[in-house]
Amino acid sequence: MTSMHRYAWNGFGAAVIGFMLSPLVVLVVFCFSSSPLLTLPIEGWSLHWFADAFARPGFLLAFRNSLIVTVCVGATSTIIGTMAAMALSTMRPGLSVGLMLAVTVPIMAPPLLLGVALLTFYSTWLNLTLGLPTVILSHLVFTQPFVILVINARMASFDHAAVESARDLGAGPLRAFFDVTLPIIAPSVVGGALIAMALSLDDFLVTFFTIGGSNTLPTFMWGMLRKGVDPSINVVATLIMLLSIGTTVFGLRITQYRG
Fold first, then answer.
1. Which of 9, 10, 66, 256 lies at 20 to 30 Å from 72 by C-alpha?
2. How confident is the model at residue 259 (pLDDT cuts 50, 70, 90)?
3. Using CA atoms, how far apart are residues 217 and 148, in angstroms rounded to an integer?
């Protein structure tokens, strides 16, 4: 490849990356604008919109709800996902592949379809009152497969002989799990949990259909948009983005994901 072609491809790649990141940069920059209008050029700089966003009625409640949902989803998906991945790793390849395909169906379903289906299921079949419990159950439907996939990938190369040796030496199933298995797969477990938490944190569509009269940060931001657009919305969006990207990157770093 000639130098001209290399420069052209590098320039094209930089332009694509710039195009993808520019909306996020603009989002963050307008958080510090002193003007209520989201227009360029920016007339001045201020932290006023941070105080305005945090002082809005319902913001702290929505933030608390998001933390509750995220932590519950992360903990529950980690426990169930670890158990499921370990069970899948001991099955015959044909059976485990079939079950894995079944488990990942919610990932492939459009979020809008998933939200409507869950709303119908809760309201018509189970007659449940919508709220944070139904949101947590709904988020488990599409976060659980990611945890199972991450941990199952680690279990594929796991040496079960170490566990069998511990059992031969007198360790019970729980002792062998906590002393042998868990220390080896711990990075994948933690990473899978963080990825599940990130997915739960910024979900809007499924949450919108299953939360009832409460709010999380994404649905709270949607309510703000319906009343008008100002930089305080950018502050809430930036907070969601930082929390989501931070947990995802940390999770991928821990699991050493390269896909």
1. 256
2. very low
3. 26
Domains, the chain, with CATH or none = 58-255 (1.10.3720.10)
CA 49 vs CA 26, 57, 134: distances in Å: 15, 14, 33
Residue 27's φ and ψ, nearest 5 degrees, are -55, -45
Q: How many CA atoms lie within 13 A of 162 on its CB side?
A: 15
Q: How far is CA 45 from CA 49, 154, 191, 200, 236, in A?
A: 10, 48, 38, 33, 18
Residue with tokens 């209008």: 37
Please write the tens of the pLDDT for every residue from 115-127: 999 999 998 888 8
Which of 107, 106, 85 minimizes the C-alpha distance to 96? 85
CB atoms inside a 10 Å sphere around CB 232:
23
Mean local confidence (pLDDT), 235-251: 78
Helix 231-255 with 182-201: angle, nearest 10 deg: 160
**Average pLDDT for residues 197-222, to the nearest whole number?**
88
**Can you give the pTM of this predicted structure?**
0.81
Question: What are the C-alpha distances in Å from 61 to residues 53, 54, 148, 202?
Answer: 13, 11, 31, 16
The CA-CA-CA angle for residues 149, 151, 157, to 5°, reads: 105
Task: Give residue for tokens 């007198």.
Answer: 170
